[in-house]
Amino acid sequence: MPQIVILLRAGSVLGIPRVQLQDVTKIVCNRINSDGLEQFLVVWAGKYERHSVPLSWHSINELSSCLELVQEYLDNKTRFDPPSRKRKSPDSEPSTNGHLLNPAERRVRQKSRSSSVTSSASDSSRSLAVTELASRDIDVYNGVIQVKDDFITVKASTEPGIDRINSDDVPTPAMLSRARSSATSTADDRIRMEVIHRLRQLPGPPVTLFNKIDRSSPPLKFQFITQSILREGVEKADPATMTGCQKCRPHMGQNIGCEYTKKCDCLEYAAVDVKRLNDVTKPIYDKYIAGMDVDLSQLPKRFPYFSNGDNTGCLVPFYLNERHPIYECNKYCMCGPGCKNRIVQHGRQVDLVIFKTKDRGWGLKSTQGLRQGQFIDTYRGEIITDAEATRREKATSSILNSYLYSLDKFAEENELKPEDLYVVDGEYFGGPTRFMNHSCEPNCRQYTVSYNKHDVRVYEIAFFAYRNIEPGEELTFDYLDKDEEEEDEVEEDAPPPSQEKPGDAQGETKLVKCLCGAKKCRKWLWM
Ligand SMILES: C[S@@+](CC[C@H](N)C(=O)[O-])C[C@H]1O[C@@H](n2cnc3c(N)ncnc32)[C@H](O)[C@@H]1O
């Protein structure tokens, strides 16, 4: 399309001009232009008369700050037109996991007609207005384009003689038909490179991307974060309540920090190991269970992680199997940073691969084998109030996916009302674990990890390997958080359960067919 090409060449003196994200409403079509360039039809944002919203075609280079809109367009297009974006040849996967451009797809369209262009330009600002377009179906340009300070802006033209195209008519059936057969591999690659770039910024061992299924990438709307973000109305407990263990020291014999459960104040609220109660401690425990004030440090406790041997750092069976809350040491503790009661706080230590599954969107795996009880990563996101979670659920853009995780571990014992609980939303902000799928027979489990035993509403959710996991095995957890003994027998071809998901007062959740493929699959999954 000549008018845009002229603009690009002028812009190349200044650098590639860019369309700004906030100026674009959406992208509605794609094509290969007469120069063989992939282009996208942009609908501009702004206050314009109805039906005369400016529209213009742009290359992926010009849309580098709008890649997430391009991705949204391509993902929707794929939903309606899957074959055009399927991988052609898995063998051509480059080592970066990026897609090779398939030469057969780079169809250079024969230039048929040109449009007349009026232009005015200065060093810092150039504008172009388009008169009658010979082929509206293809060469749509509807307004005045300006390049200023390396950014493209556009406005509806008021000049006489400029033909307007009704924006409601775009994309036309002819445009859609052309779009269907027009390659988008350059755009797919750009999007993928942006995701890979973001993954490379993450601290710790590499997180990589692998997709042998199609050309899509994880959503650019999603941002990787290293710590959860507390949103409006969410408050941690008063910082003054956060205290550390005062009687422990870095070297208490074995040079592992905290060593004696009876000395460590961090274990005050940790689960009691009832199997080790004796004649002295049993009566204290009974009083504790009856709700009386007792000295909890007298009761038998356990540290959560092995401190020596092959399994150093892995969860001990008492925590692994019974899933008691884990209380790690914190910055106020006297045991020092090398204390063995600090694992989750040091962050992810295993490599991860975000990969495309055949039928459940993206999933997560590791290239390394994981030991039973080994820490993988936390589930992070925006921590929001219950009311905000309900609002988001109702207004959700993700029809199929659910990323909300309720922080209700301590609700019952602290008599917290459901409306006072917080929820982690991992849809737009989170870590790689946001891509973990559900299995009815999972190989990972989620555990509660707290650094402040007095804070019952804000804590970490940490994933640990529940058994030894082979390299490359998909990492899964049970979304319903059921323990093995709670399992009900599920019959083959069981119909969808009629009751509501437990705890779902509003019945907002959806029931979807579970595709985990486990032998004991429950067949249906509440989302
Ligand atoms: C937390 S996300 C997991 C990542 C997701 N696959 C993606 O591509 O973003 C949860 C969503 O993944 C899909 N999913 C996960 N496990 C599934 C399963 N066993 N069966 C069917 N869909 C599943 C569902 O769409 C669910 O809402």
The tally of helices reads 7
SS strand fraction = 15-25%
Estimated structural class: alpha/beta
List of distinct ligands in this structure: S-adenosylmethionine
What is the overall silhouette? elongated
Question: How would you describe what is shown here?
Answer:
The protein contains seven helices and 25 strands. The chain is α/β, with parallel strands linked by helices and 527 residues long. The strands form seven sheets. It has a five-stranded mixed β-sheet, covered by helices on one side. The chain has a five-stranded mixed β-sheet with strand order 9-13-14-23-20, covered by helices on one side. Mean pLDDT is 83; it is low at 1-14, 89-138 and 499-507. Bound molecules: S-adenosylmethionine (SAM). Residues 360-363, 400-403, 434-435, 437-438, 512, 514-516, 525, 527 line the site of S-adenosylmethionine.
